[in-house]
């Protein structure tokens, strides 16, 4: 018996959503393994080359809430296609033989694509059956994490074989494929949706987030220009406070602050923020340790490509956890899955702190981290979307991803600061003990995350779902 058009469309839609989410994450992460190659090719300092990663994270964090609001309206398909077109154009700039400033512009355009992950979740929730949609949303959340680790070894290999332009050429190829895939498969949003972007609010939020991520990424500001860094931190806090107040008073908020203040959503975002610090901290500690030359008294001196292979267990077990989590949801509430996943990541910290004398131990620690991150990422949407109307899916998850981006950036900064503090004067590399100290800091972060998730599980049973906003076409459901 032939499959119905609806079932055939659903079969095509799911891999398309997964592919787009994977591509935008992988393309944005291309800056990570190429920093040294960029510095050599463009004759710039390593600090300047670092901006090829930082600027993508900045543009992604700024674009995410705006795209989330646009994705809640009637022009979601056009928003997805236009954003992917921007990513393709930015990818072309990274490949063309242009000066370094154009490379940064291209990387900023590539980072905009990070805002599409939440829109993919909105499409899945609107156009797939409830159970299939929940499983797809969980996997989209996971691939948005492991996409970075997929791109890392491939970019490192291409950079070694053909130079930095060849590595960025991979980004152009897959971005064009994602645009074609989206054009052929993305359905229009349901009728009756409306969305207005508050431009002033978007500018204020962009300014505050940019300063936060800048201060998190540029740790040298804190060590060499403490007064200036503190002043910028105050400005960032003021901008975010002004934004929050204006959102509460606005009839067309960029982010539904009422939804964000819901105990379940607020608790989930706190867990995401603190957990993000810990998860990204361990990821950076392991990869940095693996690439440290043996002359430092520890480390393995791995090349960029081989160090990228250390991330393979992270990707594989992260995907496995993402597939298992929706099934576990039938028996275990999402907050308990968050708590359990945070404990797994904590075990990864313990393994790294106690045993890292050979590569096999690093592979094990990275695999444990991947399984914990995969489970955490897959369970997170279930906590938020259980109390979120369908029409607000993209907006609610966009805010969660901004929180995640800030947490990841702070995790990287915390790792850098702890290792810098453990580097003796006149030495290039930190002491081995500094890595243990950083691991203990991360373990504390995951302990806090576990407690926050357990608090979510004990929240008052009277805390119900958020009502569908006026003009929305979705309906509130008890599960995503």
UniProtKB/TrEMBL annotation:
Cell compartment(s), UniProt: Cell membrane
Predominant location: membrane
Keyword line: Membrane, Transmembrane, Transmembrane helix
PROSITE patterns: MFS (PS50850)
Coiled-coil regions listed: none
Domain Major facilitator superfamily (MFS) profile: 13-461
Molecular function via GO: transmembrane transporter activity
Bilayer topology annotation: Multi-pass membrane protein
Membrane-traversing stretches: 12-36, 48-68, 80-102, 108-124, 136-154, 166-183, 195-216, 222-245, 266-286, 298-322, 334-356, 362-387, 399-421, 433-457
Pfam families on file: MFS_1 (PF07690)
Entries under InterPro entries matching the protein: MFS, MFS_dom, MFS_trans_sf
Gene Ontology cellular component terms for the protein in this record: plasma membrane
Record-given protein name: MFS transporter
Organism: Bailinhaonella thermotolerans
Organism ancestry: Bacteria, Bacillati, Actinomycetota, Actinomycetes, Streptosporangiales
